[in-house]
Amino acid sequence: MYGKAFAPEYQGALTSLSVNSSLDDVLAAGIEQLRTAERAGRHAEAARSGLAVAEAQRRLGRIADADLAWKASYRAARRAEDTAGRAWALWSGGTLARQRGEFALARRLLGLAAELGERGGDVVVRGYSLAGLAETGRIQGDYEAVGRLHEQLLAEARRRGEARHTVWALSGIAQMHRNTGSYDTAFAMFEEAARIAADADDRRGHAWALRGLADLASVRDGDTERALALLSEAESTCRAMNLSSALAYNHKMRGNVLYRAGRYAEARELYEEALAEFRAMSEPRGEALARLGLAKSLARLGRDRAETAAELDDLARVLERTGLRHAREMVARAQEEFGVRAEFGVRAEAVR
Fold it and tell me: Residues 86, 72: contact at Cβ < 8 Å?
């Protein structure tokens, strides 16, 4: 049995904020409380309010501001000798590093956050930090290494009845199943995640689960209209909460659905929109995936073969450098799809 979803990153004077609060509202409230705490010399409260500011800035795609905010939160927690507060700030910094494609830094910060969370007796930040490590490995395509950790975190979340963390773990495991071809298992897990999120009023988690279901409705069932309807439902949530990153990934997925349906001109427009959104928020993984979709769409629309080959080869180099293994495999498959020679790295048969 799961209770209502809550946002443990909204702390101190901000605990009344909902998991579904608009990020603009979170940011405004966080800045107000942060300034009040700083004027009063209340370092622990400044650290907790600053955490909400950092997370709102990150999710709004304001990377430089988020970077300043989590570091300030860490310094305030250190002055207050608040070990758990330091852990939360490091969790925010590690999550931001992953969003920026700085995976080695993300693992370092999240590992430290998990260690400090355990030392400070905060089981929630420890769990969030371990989840961040698991997600970092999953995004890089290292499924064997992090699959067991995902399962462990899912079991812990179920045991404690934490809806939001259960939804996260289910969606992560489902994504790995989808990427390895176990579509039925993935669909069932996304369905469960969507159901739990809806019952717990976790709108963000619900939107991500709907995106997963839309992907599978398209790739498994060939049901383009069902997929687009699910994405439209998710997009309304993204816009209401101003979830910039989730909205960009929604647009990228809409491009995927249209591409699979042979609607290449429409797909191109969505990929172009998503690419601009990802670049605005310095999201390298999303940018690479949108570039890939755009390159494939343009190729289908008659782009010069040499230009397609050069674009895919550059993408392969970028993804190899950043360590995004699954996305690198996608590029290799695109090179095979369009019969262009891979100037860099290995061909699709070697990376599947």
Answer: no
Task: Kindly compute the dihedral angle of the four CA atoms of residues 213, 215, 220, 224, in this order, to the nearest 10 degrees.
Answer: 100
3-class SS string, 204-220:
HHHHHHHHHHHHHHHHC
Where does 22-160 have alpha helices with state H? Answer: 23-40, 43-59, 63-79, 83-99, 103-119, 123-139, 143-160
Q: Within the chain, which residues score under 70 in pLDDT?
A: 1, 341-352
Residues ≥6 apart with Cβ < 8 Å to 89: 47, 50, 51, 54, 70, 71, 73, 74, 77
The answer to whether 167 and 193 are in contact (CB under 8 A) is yes
Query: 256: number of CA atoms within 13 Å, CB side?
Result: 23
Q: Do 87 and 72 form a contact (C-beta atoms < 8 A)?
A: no
CA 21/CA 14 separation, integer angstroms: 11
Taking CA atoms, 276 is separated from 179, 198, 271, in Å, by: 25, 30, 9
At a CB cut-off of 8 Å and minimum separation 6, what does 183 contact?
177, 216, 219, 220
User: Which of 31, 10, 33, 30 minimizes the C-alpha distance to 20?
Assistant: 10
- The DSSP code sequence of 98-118 is HHTT-HHHHHHHHHHHHHHHH
In Å, what is the CA distance from 102 to each residue of 69, 144, 188, 215?
Answer: 18, 21, 32, 27
pLDDT at position 340 is 87
Residue type, 306: A
- Give me 294's structure tokens: 């755009």
Centre a 10 Å sphere on the Cβ of residue 233 and count the other Cβ atoms it contains. 15
Contacts of 59 (CB under 8 A, 6+ apart): 23, 243, 244, 245
